[in-house]
Amino acid sequence: MNKNVTQEFEKKDNDHDRFSNKIDNAGQYLSFTLGKEEYGVDILRVQEIRSWEPVSRIPNVPPYEKGVVNLRGSIVPIIDLRERFKLKSADYTLLTVVVVLQIGDIKKTRTMGVVVDSVSDVITVDKAQIQSAPDFGTKISNEFINGLVSVNERMVMLLDVDKLLKLEELDQTEISVF
Amino acid sequence: MSIDMSQFHQVFFEECFEGLEAMEAGLLNLNIDDIDPEVINTIFRGAHSIKGGSGTFGFNNVADFTHIMETLLDEMRDGRRQVTQIAINILLGSVDCLREMISSIQNEEEVDESRVAQHTADLDNELNGLAESTPPPSHKANVETIITETSELVSNTSEASDTNEETGWKIAFCPYLDLLKTGNDPVRMFRELSELGELTSLANIQDVASLFEMDPEECNISWDLKVMGDIPLDEIEEIFNWVEGDCELDIQPIATKPAKKTAPPISEVAPEDEPEEAIETLAKEASQPTQPEIIVEQPEISKEIEPIAKPPTTATKEPNKKIQLDSDQSKLIVQVASSIRVDTSKIDALINMVGEVVITQSMLGLVGENFTMDKVDQLKKGLAQLERHTRDLQQSVMNVRMLPISFVFSRFPRLVHDISSKLGKKIELKLVGENTEIDKSVVELINDPLVHLIRNSLDHGIEMPANRIAAGKPETGTIELKAYHRGGHIVIEIIDDGHGMDRNKLIAKAVEKGIIDDTTVLTDKQAYELIFLPGFSTAEKLTDISGRGVGMDVVRRNIEALGGNIEISSELGHGTTIAIHLPLTLAILDGQSVAVGDETYIVPLVSIIESINITEKMLNKVAGKGETFRLRNQYIPIIRMHKIFNVQPSTKSKMGEGVIVVAEGQGVLCGLFVDDLLGQQQVVIKSLEANYRRVDGVSGATILGDGSVALILDVPGLVRFSNR
Question: Which of B110, B200, B635, B710 is geometrically suited to a Cys-Cys bond with B628, CB 3.0 to 4.6 A?
Answer without folding.
Answer: B635
